[in-house]
């Protein structure tokens, strides 16, 4: 039985984590200067190192020579939290997808009161934190805001907007991002050399593109190609038939996000442009006259389009000064002493002096009388 590549090569220090310098550098500085916060929020796409960084941070905090930015890897805590370790008693990983209620939050608060069994801190890692219900988050507010000195919280999520604001405001938020193609390609070349696998030209760029910037997805694809290849050589034909069209849409989005801002505006894909996404697909039989090309043609009513109507005035609303009254019965005529309401204050509006068009309008009525 062979262990998956992403488990065999899971980073054990912040120096081994690739493509996340915006997260690792501030965390290592905080560890060196002893300015570690009591709660952290790690967010980003799947497979980019959120849970791995949470474990590395736990190793750094509970290392026998720490807190340090580089774990020793020899003490019991570092060994238990390593690749082949079984986990530490003082580092609790909770799957928030199945422990997301008020009862689970109450149980966590009761466990956080007790001191660590052996290490320096008791660390709670809540993976998939966006699955916690609002009631569960509210039950955690007090313990997250004012935890005991020996307690640290690390929330990991792919959807930080679903974490309520009162929790986010009590944490240090570090957003992770997808790994750029150049760093991913270099990392895969080093990994293939370590595994003793010969890869044909063009295979690794194809795997990098299909992985979409996620390290775990990329390593899973490479592991699949290695497992399905004869001997220690991965052929290009086998790679094309296995993974070339697997995640084409995801790779298109990832390439667009990896491009500079100037290129993004010029070559935005249809999955990114919300305006294009709202336009329905048109068959070849559909007449081109069914669409309006611009706002000016919409106003002129070109190509058989009806110009937009002006919004009607609501019934009972007095017209603006200097505008003639409508003949509709929805609005009372001037000079009839209509009532106007201002909240609870009601008063009679004095009759206005009749105008020429009002006198002309009243003549037929006088003849009937």
Explain the overall architecture:
With 369 residues, the protein is of the alpha/beta class. Among the domains are: 7-175, Rossmann fold (3-Layer(aba) Sandwich); 181-252, Orthogonal Bundle (Helicase, Ruva Protein, domain 3). Helix content is 40%, strand content 11%. It has helices spanning 5-8, 21-32, 50-62, 76-80, 102-113, 134-145, 165-168, 181-195, 203-211, 215-227, 236-243, 248-258, 261-266, 274-278, 295-300, 356-368; strands at 39-43, 91-95, 122-127, 151-157, 172-175, 198-199, 233-234, 339-342, 345-348. The strands form 3 sheets. It has a 5-stranded parallel beta sheet with strand order 2-3-4-1-5, with helices on one face. A two-stranded parallel ribbon has the order 6-7. Strands 8-9 form a two-stranded antiparallel sheet. Helix 8 packs across helix 9 (203-211) and helix 9 packs parallel to helix 11 (236-243). The radius of gyration is 33 Å and the shape is flat.
Structural class: alpha/beta
CATH level 1 class label of the domain at 7-175: Alpha Beta
Query: How many E-type strands?
Result: 9
Show unreliable segments: 247-254, 267-302, 328-332, 335-346
Tell me the number of helical segments per DSSP (H or I, 4 or more residues long): 16
Indicate the overall shape: flat
By CATH, the topology of the domain at 7-175 is Rossmann fold
Q: Order of strands side by side in the largest beta sheet?
A: 2-3-4-1-5
Q: What fraction of the residues are assigned to beta strands by DSSP?
A: 5-15%
The level of helicity is 40-55%
- Let me know the largest β-sheet: 5 strands, parallel
EC number: 2.7.7.7
Keywords: ATP-binding, DNA replication, DNA-directed DNA polymerase, Metal-binding, Nucleotide-binding, Nucleotidyltransferase, Transferase, Zinc
Biased composition (Basic residues): 297-313
Domain AAA+ ATPase: 36-180
């Amino acid at each position: 039985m062979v262990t998956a590549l992403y488990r065999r090569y899971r980073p054990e220090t912040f120096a081994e984590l690739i493509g996340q310098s915006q997260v690792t550098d501030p965390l290592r500085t905080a560890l060196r200067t002893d300015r570690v916060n009591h709660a952290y929020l790690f967010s980003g796409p799947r497979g980019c190192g959120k849970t791995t960084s949470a474990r590395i941070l736990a190793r750094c905090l509970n290392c026998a020579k720490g807190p340090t930015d580089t774990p020793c890897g020899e003490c019991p805590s570092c060994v238990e939290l390593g690749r082949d370790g079984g986990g530490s008693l003082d580092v609790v990983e909770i799957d928030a997808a199945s422990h997301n209620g008020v009862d689970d939050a109450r149980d966590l608060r009761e466990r956080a009161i007790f001191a660590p069994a052996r290490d320096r801190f008791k660390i709670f890692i809540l993976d998939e934190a966006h699955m916690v219900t609002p009631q569960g988050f509210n039950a955690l507010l007090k313990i997250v805001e004012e935890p005991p000195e020996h307690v640290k919280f690390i929330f990991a999520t792919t959807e930080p907007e679903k974490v309520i604001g009162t929790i986010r405001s009590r944490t240090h938020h570090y957003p992770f991002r997808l790994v750029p193609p150049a760093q991913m390609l270099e990392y895969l070349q080093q990994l293939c050399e370590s595994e003793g696998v010969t890869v044909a030209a063009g295979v690794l760029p194809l795997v990098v593109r299909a992985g979409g910037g996620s390290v775990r997805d990329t390593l899973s694809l490479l592991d699949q190609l290695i497992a399905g290849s004869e001997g220690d050589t991965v052929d290009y034909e086998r790679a094309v038939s296995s993974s070339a069209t697997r995640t084409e849409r995801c790779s298109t989005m990832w390439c667009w996000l990896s491009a500079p801002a100037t290129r993004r505006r010029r070559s935005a894909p249809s999955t990114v442009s919300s305006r294009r996404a709202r336009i329905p697909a048109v068959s070849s039989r559909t007449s081109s006259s069914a669409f309006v090309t611009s706002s000016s043609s919409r106003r002129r009513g070109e190509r058989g389009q009806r110009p937009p109507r002006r919004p009607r005035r609501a019934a009972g609303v007095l017209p603006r000064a200097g505008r003639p009254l409508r003949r509709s019965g929805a609005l009372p005529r001037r000079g009839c002493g209509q009532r106007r309401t201002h909240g609870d204050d009601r008063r009679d509006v004095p009759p206005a002096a009749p105008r020429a068009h009002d006198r002309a309008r009243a003549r037929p009525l006088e003849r009937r009388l």
